[in-house]
Amino acid sequence: IDYSKFDHIDDSGDEAPGRTQPQPSSKGRDGRELLEAGGLEEKLTLLSGAGKAQGKGPGKASPGGYPGDTPEMAALAAELEKIAGKGYGKTSPEEPPKAGEPQRVSMRSDGRKKIHTTYPDGGEMVEEFDEKTDVLLVRKVRKPSKLGKEGEWVYEVGQATETAFDPYSDLLKASSSNPIFLRKDTPEHLQWRIRNLSYPADVYSVTVDHEKQEIVVRTSNKKYFKRIQVPDLARFALKLQEQLLSWKHQ
After folding, report:
1. Range with the largest mean pLDDT of 27-36, 149-158, 199-208, 231-240
2. How confident is the model at residue 61 (pLDDT cuts 50, 70, 90)?
3. Helices and strands in the chain, H and E counts
4. Tens digits of residue pLDDT in 25-43
5. Per-residue CA distances from 78 to 64, 84, 218, 228 (Å)
6. Maximal CA-CA distance, the chain
């Protein structure tokens, strides 16, 4: 190694005349200009909560309170301040349920909107609506027994889901040829359907029992008899009107 080229190195800390210290770059690694420590108060403008300009700077505040804004931007800022002053966009905290009022919980699942209502007496009601058409698909209710045990679900609208027959635990199963009764409403009508009845139309009789407020379906051959209750009307203390009752055989 040739050390002769190191003989003329000055050990003093003084820099050689004519040399200048390299200036630190004012740009970051991403190429953006960095803020210098000095004169920040001249480059930044602080805004108070009311939107008024504070501090020093080359820009002057416009009538709306924002430096360098055009009249259009100042007008837009004024409108936004009015909206913010009225409380738009703020969500009020949910009020706790009042005593004696039913409590409702809603959710969406499998294309249906489900609402579960719990009443103060322990009764429950579950309603399911089609998410696209808002048609009521299922309504079932149940009430607790006198001993506080949960009761069985009673379907007012729709049909209970059929379970597969288990030969090890089930003793009997209803025949698939038995009449099937279910309710399927439309947006305009309360509608009931009875399937698996193969009798001609002139055998059926559909009337209103005004005393019990029920719809009675019977056949002249005494093969089928059904009383249909309408709890929807009973909740609103409305009476059945026979002139509004119609039926169709197909």
Report:
1. 199-208
2. very low
3. 3, 12
4. 566 666 676 656 555 555 5
5. 6, 10, 73, 63
6. 130
pLDDT digits (tens, 9 = 90+) for 118-159: 999 889 999 999 999 889 999 999 998 888 788 889 999 988
**What is the full DSSP assignment across 68-105?**
T--HHHHHHHHHHHHHHHTTTTPPPPPPPPPTTS-EEE
Output the six-digit token pair for 178. Answer: 């038995």
Q: What kind and span of H or E run contains 231? A: helix 231-235
DSSP E strands in the chain: the ranges are 46-47, 53-54, 103-109, 112-118, 124-130, 136-142, 154-157, 180-183, 192-195, 204-209, 214-219, 225-229
| Helix (H) / strand (E) containing 42 | helix 40-43
Contact 105, 94 (CB under 8 A): no
